[in-house]
Amino acid sequence: MAVSDALRVLQGKAPFVPELAIVLGSGLGALADSAEARAGRAIPFTDLPGFPAPTVAGHGGRVVFCEFEGRKVLLQAGRFHFYEGHPMPLVVAPMRLYGRLGVRAVLLTNAAGALNPAFGVGDLMALTDHINLFGTNPLIGPNVEPGPRFPDMTAVYDPAFRNQLKACAQGLGQTLREGVYLGLTGPSYETPAEIRAFRTLGADAVGMSTVPEAIVARHEGLRVAGISCLCNMAAGILPQALTHQEVLAAGAAAAGRFEALVRAFVRTLP
Ligand code: HPA
Question: Whole-angstrom Cα distance, residue 53 to residue 59?
Fold first, then answer.
């Protein structure tokens, strides 16, 4: 897909260049319905040429430009998952748009399953790194200039942002886990054997998003922060099956803590 048409429309409607874009994951979209967001400017994805409507329950499908905690922020409710059958260029198109709009940083949030047995359902985890098991890379194809052909991925998740998240959590009296997010396509959840294998690979959480976006955000030169809401223990860790309803319910239960942490993060942006 050509991002340029969508960019022209977005530039025409954007009231300002946001300091930060926040991608709200499954079950974490309530911020896009906050009073600040309702006072902001919402643009449905379907207004942007080449962007379809998201299909998954719990995903809204719009960007909202708003003043949030005194800062200029873009909230993205809903995202395009690879498992929906969307081509990878669409999955990462929002990151291209934000980069070209002049946004300097993105906070990627998601619902994930916990592999680390020390973590629990409802915990929030700051991403320290990721493992890409999508079986593809969003940068395959002609290089999108001016990003480098072989971008460095040594510190995808900005260490200063991570320290800031830790300080925010501490100030709120929250426990914030830290760990490695392993991303794969889904939509089937993992088998217990896969989860055992991923633990030996060093993963703390597993999910179906975020990794392609983080790679492209870095390619665009954006600073990246990531937060997972650990909505279930990964397959085989507990003697029970996994359901999307369980994931959404755990997200809803963690929503208050998630919102407080995101608000503190925005408030304390450098
Ligand atoms: N696996 C993959 N994706 C997920 C999970 C999981 O256990 N929970 C929420 N998203």
Answer: 10
Minimum CA distance residue for ligand 1 atom 10:
112
Q: How far is the CA of 147 from the centre of ligand 1 (A)?
A: 31
Q: Is 196 helix (H, G, I), strand (E, B) or coil?
A: helix
For 108-166, write each residue's pLDDT tens digit: 999 999 999 999 999 999 999 999 999 999 999 999 999 999 999 999 999 999 999 99
> How high is the pLDDT of residue 226?
98
pTM assigned to the model: 0.96
- CA dist 122 and 173 (Å) reads 15
Which residues are known catalytic residues? 26, 59, 81, 83-84, 111, 208-209, 232, 244
Identity (one letter) of the amino acid at 58? G
- Side-chain-side CA neighbours of 201 within 13 Å: the count stands at 20
CA–CA distance, 240 with 249 (Å, rounded to integer): 16
CA pair distance 146, 149, nearest whole angstrom = 9
Is residue 58 pLDDT above 50, yes or no?
Answer: no
For the domain made up of 3-267, the CATH class stated in words is: alpha beta
Q: Which residues does a 6 A CB cutoff place in the pocket of ligand 1?
A: 111-113, 186, 189-190, 206-208, 231-232, 234, 242, 247
